[in-house]
Amino acid sequence: QVQLVESGGGLVQPGGSLRLSCAASGSIQSINVMGWYRQAPGKQRELVARIISGGNTDYADSVKGRFTITRDSAKNTVYLQMNSLKPEDTAVYYCNIVYYSSNYIGRRFDRWGQGTQVTVSS
After folding, report:
1. Are 105 and 29 contacting, i.e. CB atoms less than 8 angstroms apart?
2. What CA–CA distance (Å, rounded) separates 32 from 60?
3. Burial of 34 (C-beta count, 10 Å sphere; 0-12/13-18/19+)
4. Can you tell me the distance from the alpha carbon of 100 to that of 12, in angstroms, rounded to the nearest whole number?
5. What's the pLDDT score for residue 53?
6. Which residues contact 18 (CB under 8 A, 6 or more apart)?
7. Strand 2-7's sheet: what is its strand order?
8. What is the band of 105 on the pLDDT scale with cuts at 50, 70, 90?
């Protein structure tokens, strides 16, 4: 079993900052991709940012220059630093990992976190 524990969401005023964390644990041999997605009410889930094992990153155009994704491979943890937050960033943020299982050698899986609410409002 693989578990993802997210933290760091909350209520912040426009222009403020938050940092999300997601720690993965369990039967993990290696993690290929760690990322953050978000889903606002009435909208589809969308990619916010992801980081590949080699260190390459992808960002949604709407967050470029404001959000930064980093990874601590030793701790199997991914962070999302969110600055200059806007009301349109309000959503439930989900952590996602693509990993190779230590129980099923050579097989790749993905896992979602439970989500953490981010609300940007004055």
Report:
1. yes
2. 19
3. buried
4. 36
5. 86
6. 8, 9, 10, 12, 82, 85, 118
7. 2-7, 18-26, 77-82, 67-72
8. confident
